[in-house]
Design brief:
about 20% strand, alpha/beta, about 40% helix, single chain, 14 helices
């Protein structure tokens, strides 16, 4: 099957923003496929913010230690093949078509016998299968949404990593306690949970789940920590006190102090998996070369263009704190596109004091909030704002208005970032 044919068949399935809150179809698929996701150990990453970066860094560290590692993340920015990597190499389009053709008969069987398999479920099954076929020595899986009923939650979860938890998807609950109960479902019986900083409310739920599952709980600040974070050329430098060793002189080529904490969680997850100290030089090499597109990503200079997928209040607050700690500018031009089901005011409020001019826009997606609504909210918070029908249009206007010393920030959604990346990085 050709890649474009596979994508067309896949796109016809129920979209990933409309998940089904059960594992019935995934369990049926896994049985038909002979449980490929259990043929390799796994690190399973959840949380509200930071999980993609953490998953990418854990895979990079594992690969640097000689483990052929499959990485499954979401969403993608340009091509669906980005979601499947083996030690930094995305799946080739030809391989995607072949693997999907192999999977298609099983998908149709489950469609008929259990119920229609969704877009994200099909991709998750493809990851299970392709990593087993490779074969990999380790799988690193990022949760799509939640945890307990997420399609990825059939992995063995030898190490669960829980990044900071906040409110985002209403499907998961309206309180931190409800959301955390859902996400803590990735902690498996007798396994290990590496837990980043959490609110007291979230931590209580995680501790209860760990006790129920007789799982080893490794908390940031108690069992491991980040120290001596300082800005550095092209990123930041810091040390990690891990489970079995201390890793000094780490240079992470990703901006934002929160990324240093993600990196530490990734290192500790691999330590916990291998049950030994890691090679310090391998850790430095892996983190020094790592990237995380769409997360405080520098897309251009003079004027400076920063892309960040902050799509909820906690991420927007982290972004607002990280920007002045990392960059300097004369005026900040805020290009903002947000989905209709997100907390618009919660995203705008932390960024308002930084913005000198606003450019409200809509992502190329049916879930997009109309630019006029985005502009009205930005105006409420004192940002002089214009509306534009597309991200490239807003970006062009910001570029025309900006001087060399200014900063253009594109944010509100990873889909906003994806539209901007296409305009900036792929337009000849």
């Amino acid at each position: 099957m050709r890649f474009d044919e596979a994508v067309a068949v896949l796109d016809a399935r129920q979209p990933e923003y409309m998940p089904k809150p059960d594992l019935d179809r995934m369990r049926a698929l896994a049985v038909l496929l002979a449980e490929p996701q259990l043929t390799y150990p796994t690190i399973h990453v959840t949380g509200t913010n930071g999980k993609t970066t953490t998953a990418r860094l854990a895979a990079a560290v594992a690969c640097a230690h000689g483990l052929t590692t499959g990485l499954f993340t979401s969403p993608h920015l340009a091509s669906v093949t980005e979601r499947f990597e083996i030690c930094g190499d995305p799946m080739a389009e030809e391989a995607f078509g072949e693997e999907f053709e192999h999977l298609l008969g099983y998908l149709r069987t489950v469609d008929e016998q259990v119920g229609p398999v969704t877009y994200f479920e099909a991709l998750t099954a493809l990851a299970y299968l392709s990593f087993a076929d490779a074969p990999v020595a380790l799988g690193v899986f990022e949760v799509g949404m939640g945890g307990t009923w997420d399609a990825t939650n059939l992995v063995s979860g030898d190490v669960a990593v829980i990044c900071p938890i906040g409110l985002d998807h209403p499907e998961l609950g309206s309180t931190i306690t409800e959301v955390t109960r859902e996400k803590a479902g990735v902690i498996k019986q007798g396994k290990v949970a590496v837990v980043r900083e959490q609110t007291e409310e979230a931590l209580e739920v995680i501790e209860d789940r760990s006790e129920e599952q007789i799982a080893t709980l490794l908390l940031e600040g108690r069992d491991w920590e980040v120290a001596d974070v300082t800005p550095a050329v092209g990123g930041q430098a810091f040390s990690i006190r891990g489970l079995h060793a201390t890793y000094d002189d780490i240079l992470l080529a990703i901006y934002g102090e929160y990324a240093a904490h993600n990196a530490a969680a990734a290192v500790v997850a691999v330590e916990a998996l291998l049950e030994r100290p890691l090679d310090r030089d391998a850790v430095r090499l892996a983190l020094g070369a790592a990237t995380s597109p769409g997360r405080l990503e520098v897309a251009a200079r003079r004027p400076l263009v920063i892309l960040d997928g902050a799509h909820n209040p906690a991420a927007a607050r982290a972004l607002a704190e990280a920007l002045p700690d990392t960059f300097t500018w004369d005026r900040l031009h805020l290009v903002l596109g947000v989905f209709a089901d997100k907390d618009l005011e919660g995203i705008v409020a932390p960024l308002a004091s930084l913005a000198d001019a606003g450019y409200a826009t809509a992502v190329d997606n049916v879930r997009a909030r109309p630019p006029r609504e985005v502009a009205d909210m930005m105006a409420v918070h004192g940002i002089a704002t214009e509306s534009f029908p597309s991200v490239p249009d807003a970006l062009d206007a910001a570029a025309r208005a900006a001087s060399d010393g200014d900063l253009i920030l594109v944010t509100g959604s990873l889909y906003t970032v994806a539209d901007a990346r296409r305009a900036l990085l792929e337009d000849p």
